[in-house]
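Handout, page 2. Input:
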Amino acid sequence: MISTEQLNYRILFSKIAAILLLVAIIPIWPYFLYQFLKLVVFGAASFSVYLYHKEKDTQWMIIMIIIAIIFNPINPLYFGHFLWSIVDFIVAMIFYKSPKTRSPDEKRTVRDDNSLR
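Output:
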């Protein structure tokens, strides 16, 4: 189970990554921004993988692992700008649509714990 603070950080990192991905679609930025973007998206996806693993949400964990592999800064993938624009938009929408609340099982557990008091 994750804490409320961890959930809030996951939401914040997802929003930051989504905004940066949408800004990166415009082809006027220096190469440094795209390197920074890969680092931020990789970090946000990796943190999300960790939290989804703790929540036992396998579907979202696998989605975030794929995003982390695509945006990894250590062994980068090389696409043309047009393809990167499409990938950036799709991944931004994935970050935007990612769950903003706990899984239903965890909500039930929290309610059950509170009802015992």
